[in-house]
Every structure is written in structure tokens, then in C-alpha cells.
Write a structure and sequence with these properties.
It is a single chain. The protein is of the alpha/beta class and about 400 residues long. The protein has a domain of about 250 residues: Rossmann fold (3-Layer(aba) Sandwich), CATH 3.40.50. Helix content is about 40%, strand content about 15%. The chain has 13 helices and twelve strands. The strands form three sheets. A five-stranded parallel sheet has the order 3-2-1-8-9, sandwiched between helices. The protein has a four-stranded antiparallel sheet with strand order 4-5-6-7, with helices on one face. Strands 11-10-12 form a three-stranded mixed sheet, covered by helices on one side. Helix 7 links the parallel strand 8 and strand 9. Helix 4 crosses helix 7, helix 6 packs across helix 7 and helix 10 packs across helix 12. The longest helix is centred in the first third of the chain and has 19 residues. The two termini are about 30 Å apart. The mean pLDDT is about 95.
Length: about 400
């Protein structure tokens, strides 16, 4: 599947700090940090394309864009993979409700997503992979799991047996009762009769009348839950990749169950060294979600004339691990901030910029503290505007390039 285009990322002088992500390493993770300049491997769970990208999606992908930029600034080559779940129950349900072919619906919303990400200057993944194009990969992984005795059939469906996952719970840290509650709320089937354990989950869904299906060694059907990311990540990145990311709602069951599948298929842990989860975005005090219908779409803001860089700044003004609410005045403040920054870098000279680069790097190295990085630039811009310049004629261009490279904002 085609990704989207991006501008070149400026290179900056100086020595970046090592990145600290506030997430616990997984069982079996390598305790020693990777050497500078090595390849970093990142997998981020992508959209189910039955609706356009809302601000919660954008906040997630901007977070991992920062991670990508910090790694690149440190000299690493980044192999970034993102999936698209272009066949799933919510997509089929939306298509049935609107009378649209599910393939046309998915294609249209994927195009909107690409346009939004390109406008927001999110660096594209090296591999942008759809589930439909990965059916063979997914079926192969299910066969590997079944060969290890960790799967069983139920009325033609194939289930993963949670009893075969020795580290189950390591990703989420949840107790069994909480897992059962969340499993039922988030698309699982804990009450299905015939399962060996209520927490067992569907790997392969046998063909149902009126539903799309594909031929496979498992019989005609389509992928179940969570298995697409396990199969795609193992194929593209191998096991033990650096970071597996997504929204906090993916901690359980998606990442927990995906980790168990990958560990079972390969025979060793972990699927990822670390998991990083982005907090939810609300709207005026309520959770922003498709089920509630209270979404603010990136494409909608752009259609209203919002500068994508202002949208990006409004999102970056929040730390990824802290839940927050979107309000319209946040975009107004971001527009004003963007104007100040652009005015400051347009001056013929400014306050020395090397310390600004150092301070932005320090903020981002501390668990991707984007709000602190924005404050650094605010202070530099305020001094430059107040003094109508400064003593360093190279400072405006250096700050402009740093903001571009590290924060992804084009001034």
C-alpha cells in the first residue's frame, strides 16, 4: 500500500541526548540501550478506515512522529511500519449502513488519512501495510500458532488459547476480571459457548454468509482480532523491535493479545522491547469517539481553512501520556503562536540559537515532552521580537531548521 510524501528533514549539529520513554521494558527485553546510529524499529497500529482521521488519531501519530524525529536526530535509521485494518467488522457495518461498497469506503478514507498526515508533516512509514494485502501472512502466522498447540477450532473458527501464553498480562498489568470486562467492551466474545477460556480470542473467522472471505489453508474466511499487527510486525521488523505504539485503548486487548501471538509464533519473547501508549483526547469534557459521534476531524479543520501547522502546534501543546480535551480556543492560541514564531525567524538576526536546539532536544529526550519544547521556542521568539533581532545573524535559520527537524513544524 502506498504511503504519503514528506519533505526532507534538516540535519542539525551538536549531540542529542539519549531518549527516555516512560514505559516498562517487557519480559526478555534487552536491558542495554542501542548504540547511536543503529537502526530503530517502530510499529504503530493504524486506522480502521471507516471514517476520517480525528484529532485523537492525529495526536497519536504526531506522538510517534516525534519519536521518529528524535531517533533520526540521533543518527539512527528508522524502520517505521504502520498498518491499515482495511477489513474488519466496524468497516463492514459502516458500509452496510450507508449502502457503500466496503472497499470503496476504505479506499476513500485511506486517501483522506494520507492527505491529513502529509498536511501535518508526519513522516511517512517505510512500510504502510493493509490487512487485505496481508491475508497470506496472517494465515501463515495462525498456522504457526496452531502448530505449536496454542490454537483450537470452534465451529470452523480458530481461537488462541490464553493458557498457552506464559507472559499474558505483562503488557497491560491488568487482573483477570478487568481483562474480561474490557474484552467484552472492546469487541471480544468472552461469553461465546464452547471456548476453553472466556479470554481466548479469535485468530481466524470462518466465512459467514454475505461477508468477504479469502481462501487459505485455514479454510475460507478472514482474519480475526489482533492477529494482523502480529503478522505484519513480525514480517516487516522481526521480533524484539524497539517500540510498539498506539492509543491507550489498545493496551488491552489488542497489544496484550498481539504480544502473546508473536511470542508463540516465534518461540521467544518479547514482541517489542517497549510499548508506548498515547492518552485519549476528549471534546469539551466528553470522550471523543466514533461511537459517541463527537469527533473533530483534521480534514474538517483543514477544509475550514486552518493552517495544518497550527493544528500540529495545538496538538503538540499536550504531553502524549496525559488525557486532555480539545476546545476551539486551542486552535486560536496555536495560530497566534505560529505567527509569533514565523515573525521571529523572519528577522535578520536573533538571540543565539544553539542553546535553543540543546533545550528542545533535552525536552524531547525526556519522555517526548513536547509542551516543554514549545516553551523553549516561545521564549526565544519573544526575546527576538522584543529586541527586533539580536546579535546572531544565523540564529533565525538555525531555530527554523530545529523546529522543522525536531517538532515537524514548517516556519
Amino acid at each position: 500500500m502506498q504511503s504519503w510524501s514528506s519533505d526532507d528533514v534538516p540535519r542539525l549539529d551538536g549531540t542529542p541526548r539519549p531518549l527516555r520513554l516512560n514505559s516498562a521494558p517487557q519480559p526478555g527485553a534487552d536491558p542495554s540501550p542501542a548504540a547511536p546510529g543503529t537502526t530503530k524499529r517502530l510499529y504503530v497500529c493504524g486506522i480502521t478506515p471507516y471514517d476520517a482521521a480525528h484529532l485523537g488519531h492525529a495526536f497519536t501519530y504526531l506522538t510517534f512522529d516525534l519519536l521518529n524525529r528524535v531517533w533520526r536526530d540521533a543518527g539512527a535509521e528508522v524502520h517505521y511500519v504502520q498498518n491499515v485494518t482495511d477489513i474488519d467488522d466496524p468497516l463492514l457495518e459502516r458500509a452496510a449502513a450507508t449502502g457503500e461498497d466496503w472497499r470503496a469506503l476504505a479506499a476513500r478514507e485511506i486517501d483522506v488519512f494520507r492527505a491529513d498526515m502529509e498536511a501535518l508533516r508526519v513522516l511517512p512509514p517505510r512500510s504502510f501495510v493493509g490487512v487485505v494485502e496481508s491475508i497470506d501472512l496472517i494465515a501463515d502466522l495462525v498456522q504457526r500458532v496452531r502448530a505449536r498447540g496454542a490454537a483450537y477450532e470452534l465451529e470452523g473458527d480458530v481461537y488462541f488459547s490464553v493458557a498457552s501464553a506464559p507472559h499474558f498480562g505483562a503488557v497491560s498489568g491488568l487482573d483477570r476480571d478487568t481483562m474480561l470486562d474490557l474484552f467484552g467492551e472492546r469487541g471480544g466474545d468472552p461469553t461465546r459457548a464452547g471456548k476453553k477460556d472466556p479470554l481466548d480470542w479469535l485468530l481466524w473467522r470462518a466465512e459467514r454468509p454475505g461477508e468477504p472471505a479469502w481462501d487459505s489453508p485455514l479454510g475460507r474466511g478472514r482474519p480475526g482480532w489482533h492477529v494482523e499487527c502480529s503478522a505484519i510486525s513480525l514480517h516487516e521488523l522481526g521480533s524484539g523491535f524497539d517500540v510498539n505504539g498506539g492509543g491507550v485503548d489498545l493496551v488491552f486487548p489488542h497489544h496484550e493479545m498481539g504480544a502473546a501471538e508473536a511470542e508463540c509464533a516465534t518461540g521467544h519473547a518479547p514482541q517489542a522491547q517497549q510499548y508506548c501508549h498515547v492518552a485519549m483526547v476528549g471534546l469539551d469534557g466528553d470522550k471523543m469517539s466514533k461511537s459517541q459521534g463527537n469527533l473533530v476531524f483534521v480534514s474538517g479543520l483543514r477544509a475550514e481553512g486552518a493552517d495544518p501547522m497550527a493544528i500540529r502546534l495545538a496538538l503538540l501543546d499536550h504531553h502524549y501520556a496525559t488525557p486532555w480535551d480539545w476546545t476551539a480556543d486551542q486552535l486560536d492560541r496555536a495560530v497566534a503562536r505560529l505567527a509569533r514564531w514565523r515573525s521571529a525567524v523572519a528577522l535578520p538576526s536573533g538571540e543565539p540559537g544553539a542553546d535553543v536546539v540543546t533545550a528542545i532536544r533535552a525536552a524531547l529526550s525526556d519522555d517526548l515532552n513536547a509542551p516543554a519544547a514549545l516553551t523553549v521556542v516561545d521564549r526565544w521568539a519573544a526575546r527576538a521580537i522584543e529586541n527586533q533581532g539580536g546579535t546572531d545573524p544565523e540564529a533565525p535559520d538555525l531555530v527554523r531548521r530545529a523546529v522543522d527537524a525536531l517538532l515537524g513544524v514548517a516556519l
